[in-house]
Design a protein that fits this description.
Blueprint lengths: L1 E7 L11 E8 L5 H10 L5 E2 L6 E2 L8 E4 L4 E6 L3 E7 L4 H10 L24 E2 L2 E2 L4 E8 L4 E6 L20 E11 L22 H15 L7 E5 L5 E3 H10 L6 E3 L3 E3 L2 H7 L6 E2 L2 E3 L6 E4 L5 H19 L8 E2 L1
Bound molecules: flavin-adenine dinucleotide.
Amino acid sequence: MQHINNQDLTHLNTFHIEVKAKDFYIVENESELPRLFHELKKHNAKPLILGGGSNILFTDNPQIPIIQFITKRIKILEKYPDYDLVQAEAGIKWDDLVRWSVENNYYGLVNLSYIPGTVGAAPVQNIGAYGQEAGNFIHSVKIYNIEQQRFQTLSQEQCSFGYRSSIFKTSLKGKAIITSVIFRLPKQKHFDLSYKDLRILQDSPLLSLWLLRLTIGKIRMSKLPDPSIIGNAGSFFKNPIIPTDQLSALQQRFPQIPHYQMPRQKVKIPAGWLIDQLGLKGYRHGNAGVYENNALVLVNHGNATGEEILELAKIIQDKVKEKFDILLEPEVNII
Ligand SMILES: Cc1cc2nc3c(=O)[nH]c(=O)nc-3n(C[C@H](O)[C@H](O)[C@H](O)COP(=O)(O)OP(=O)(O)OC[C@H]3O[C@@H](n4cnc5c(N)ncnc54)[C@H](O)[C@@H]3O)c2cc1C
């Protein structure tokens, strides 16, 4: 384990907000956690786990300790006729795991190709894209429980995965460190092409895991700005889920409003569409802005502060609330 004072986080968060962490710890092995937490407890310090910093907005220099994992192992734990159980450590880049799964002919994770970040963060907001969510393939999650100071394994059910949510965003928020994730990876050939942009592949004689991955990569590149060029954290807001009654009322005023059916008489509305209706694509607030090709993405045009991006988010929330009576919830973790 390494302890660094005043670690610059500018290149450790994809918004590229210039902040410094007073205490930064690099953990190479989960066995180091009990000793680290014993130390932190003496100072009553509650730490933040930083993965790839691709879903975080720092609004100031964090005064709390920051912990980052550099654990990297992928291990096949058990083999079954239809699937294998595969354990991946928290510090692995998410897309390295997806590429490994494709190389080894596992079906499932491929739709989640090219999502930035780490394996350890994937269960936190149950990352999702192109009709799939990580939680669908998670068998269990190994955590270090900070309050109880012990390792625990949570089953898929105990993780309470939902749309961009899990137990790690609710009752275990700030209380659990994910050290590794065990995936149940299918071996039977099956492609999920339910997402509209992927339907073009349905009749392709060349359909393969690699072709699907390549296609998803191309679509993502056309819709999302590359954080190495322009700072951003992907979708800033969650797509709101509202009751069907509220949709009917909105349809009177906005007949074109797009929506997707959800269980229990609810519908999901694309937040990007709501923001776009306000004419905010390309809008700027100081050095912060709404991405010109995708209204759901807030960007750092250079030297934006976290506060500036947060102010922009609030402007958008107020305008959406005023026009549609819908409160947009941030997907990004504001620190
Ligand atoms: C260009 C771009 C595109 C994106 N596309 C998508 C997408 O398609 N779908 C999607 O769902 N998301 C997307 N995201 C968001 C982001 O990639 C995911 O949320 C990702 O899981 C964040 O991983 P991270 O390692 O960077 O986490 P961080 O941003 O470092 O952390 C996110 C949260 O998880 C917590 N955390 C991180 N690691 C651990 C751990 N080991 N134990 C406990 N808590 C932890 C942090 O404390 C924080 O609260 C995108 C982001 C960008 C920049």
